Each structure stands twice: as structure tokens, then as C-alpha cells.
Amino acid sequence: xxxxxxxxxxxxxxxxxxxxxxxxxxxxxxxxxxxxxxxxxxxxxxxxxxxxxxxxxxxxxxxxxxxxxxxxxxxxxxxxxxxxxxxxxxxxxxxxxxxxxxxxxxxxxxxxxxxxxxxxxxxxxxxxxxxxxxxxxxxxxxxxxxxxxxxxxxxxxxxxxxxxxxxxxxxxxxxxxxxxxxxxxxxxxxxxxxxxxxxxxxxxxxxxxxxxxxxxxxxxxxxxxxxxxxxxxxxxxxxxxxxxxxxxxxxxxxxxxxxxxxxxxxxxxxxxxxxxxxxxxxxxxxxxxxxxxxxxxxxxxxxxxxxxxxxxxxxxxxxxxxxxxxxxxxxxxxxxxxxxxxxxxxxxxxxxxxxxxxxxxxxxxxxxxxxxxxxxxxxxxxxxxxxxxxxxxxxxxxxxxxxxxxxxxxxxxxxxxxxxxxxxxxxxxxxxxxxxxxxxxxxxxxxxxxxxx
Length: 453
Ligand code: ADQ
What we know:
With 453 residues, this protein is an alpha/beta fold.
């Protein structure tokens, strides 16, 4: 069995999801350590290797300038907004573009010596799109796959990116390119055929350009079902659920859990909740909304703005609707463990997942996974989350419409048990079976098979 090499822009939840695959394949995880090297020039730190729980992690630090131009700059102020269809927030700076290419070259330089002849290489996400091409330019002939965790934008938006062609040509140096949904894959194929004149086979996803063929395919990511259920069995999960229930008393708890990111539709969500209270004032005492949203990427201006906007909106609704003994919105600016989240999800009878655009959205799947099958809660889910394609029996909403959100909340509050169970039964199978282990197996199996026949 060839060893697998994983690579990602930063360690995080994804590292956990891939741990078991790396363990099975005796792989190495390679990526940014998340730390700054302390030098203010453009030199990147030494590689540092650690072994934990059967998985070897090789990481490098980045310099202050690298983090500024590559991570906060091109990755999070150019690619992230553009790929989430937010041209209004997309910054186009030559310097950050150069930083992105420079750091990808550094990653290639650092990781190349760790790669052996038969290894599979699996590159993750928008931070590292050119990495495969940089490795190829060093003579690597290994099978190299890439997975994009976020959406792929429509061609008409994507062409606003300076040097868009150069970026996509680097993607066509991979053997296999994975997307979360068939929709994102379709947009990618459209770009390749319309803008690059590549030969595209819609059926197989084969994209041929300059004599090289890349396969583009959808692999919807799932949760780590076994681990999440095990977390749900812990005392920590039970206590978290009890804490929430005892604080809400007879009111129905509705929960939202997100990174504080403009793609998650948080201010729009507040507008929908405000509209619900306006339309159904007699229900104010029936509902308490808990929003858990730890800040992220605070070095990027648009992220600071979204935080201020959200605080204002939540404050306005609370100011207008609170009583001395009751506050309708609890807004919590911190993260919780998966065990605690499991407890909160199970105690909350409505889950609100309303991104304006999302590659997949694992919170939607975690919410359903945490429900009591005998008395499940209702998931309200944005039509613009990748997850909506797999979970059409949720209450699907348009997150831009406050009325749509308000009526969905009203419907969820009064939904009879039989209908809640029917929707839960129609959804739980995909959440349980299309899990992260299957996702990794499917991708690794396809990557292994590339060129085999
Ligand atoms: P995110 O946008 O970060 O990542 P999302 O799917 O919303 O992804 O959540 C990822 C994980 O973070 C979940 O396990 C969730 O429990 C945890 N998390 C989120 N908010 C939290 C909070 N407030 N406290 C504690 N934990 C929290 C990207 C893409 C998604 C895609 C994932 C995986 O944007 O579309 O689903 O990668 O591919």
C-alpha cells in the first residue's frame, strides 16, 4: 500500500477528519504550523516533525510577511470572498498574489524531499491550489489529487480574478480534482471548456488540455459519525445539554453555530429572527435563540466589520424585545468542544444553518446527528449550502429573505412529532453513511486508480 501525503494550509478540524486515513495509510500530514517564524523578512521556518497517535505531522512556520500576503491577503481576502460569490469584498492586490505563489513554491520546496516514489499526494483547499503544479515542476510523477472545500464560482464571476487562467491551469496538473457538490464541479467544467478551450467530458469529468487529463468529480464531505456519537455519550455532552435546558425552561431553544464569517449569513439571520418577532409578537416568549460564533480571521478588515454588524443587530433585537426576566437572543463569542456542541444540538429543538454560500456545511450534519430519533428537532437549512443537495427534507430556506426565515421558524416551532420524525428519517442515513471515512476512502481509491487501466 503506498503511503499517503496530506497537505493543508493550516491545521484545524480537517486535520482531525483526516487522521484516521493517514493512520491507515501510514501517511504524513504536511502544512503550515499556524505559527509565525518571528522573522520579519520573507524567509520561511524550518520543517518540524512530530508523531502523535500514529500520525506524523510535518509543519513549517511562516514569516510575518508570508502570513500577511499569502494567508490574510490572497487566500482570505481574494480567493475566499471570490469563491463565495462576494465580488464586493474581493481584493485584488499584485503583492498578495505574488506572496501566494511564493509561499506555494516554499511549501513545494519543503515537502518535496519527504515524498517517495509510490506515495499518493493529497492537497487540500484554496490556500494550496498551485502546489501540485509546483511539485510537478520539480519532476514529481506521483499521483497528486486536490480537494476544494469551498464552492467553485460561476465563470462570469471567476474571470474577474486577474490571472484566473494561470490559476486554473495549475489545477489541471493534478490527476484528480474533488469538489463538494455536482454544482461546483459543473461550474469548474464550464470554465475549463469556455475559457481554456479544454476538451471536457461531462459524464466522466475528464478535462484534457495540452495532452494531460485531469478527472473532476464530486465528493460530498461528511462528519466523523463514530467520533461524534462517542462525544455524545460523554458526561460533558449531557451536562452541556442540561445546562442549556435548565436555562431556557419552557421556551424552545433554537441554535446557530458558525465561525464568524460573512459567508455564514449571520446578519441576515438576525433580520429573519427580527422579522419573526415582528410578525408573531405573541410568540416572543416561546423562543430563545442561541448563536455561538467565535471570531475568525480578525486580521482581515471584512471580518472585523461583520462582527460589529452582528453585535449591533443582536443588540437591537434584544433592546426591543427583552423583558426583565427574558432575553430573546444569546450571542456567545467563543467556541465549544464537539461534546458540548452535541449536548447543545440535542437540547435545541430548532437548528438554524443559513449560509449565503457554503461548500458543504458540517454543522447542518452535526445538528441532525445529535438528535434524539424519538423526538428529533428541526433543521432549517439554506438552499445555498452544499449540504442542501444531500438534505432536501430539511426546512429549506432562502437566507436573503427575512420573511422566508421568519415563516420557517414559525413552522419549525409548531411542527408535529410525526413530521419531524419523517424529515429526520429521510436525512439521517446520508449523515450517518456518507461520513468522513467514506469520503476519504472514495477519494483515495479514485486517486490510487488513476492511470491504472
Ligand atoms: P467551515 O466554513 O469552517 O469550513 P463548517 O462546515 O461550517 O466549515 O464547520 C466546520 C467545523 O467547525 C464543524 O465541525 C463545526 O462543529 C466546527 N465549528 C463551527 N463553528 C463552531 C463554533 N462556533 N464552535 C465550535 N466549533 C465550531 C469549510 C467550508 C465548509 C465545509 C468544511 C469541510 O467552508 O463548507 O463543510 O470546510 O469541508
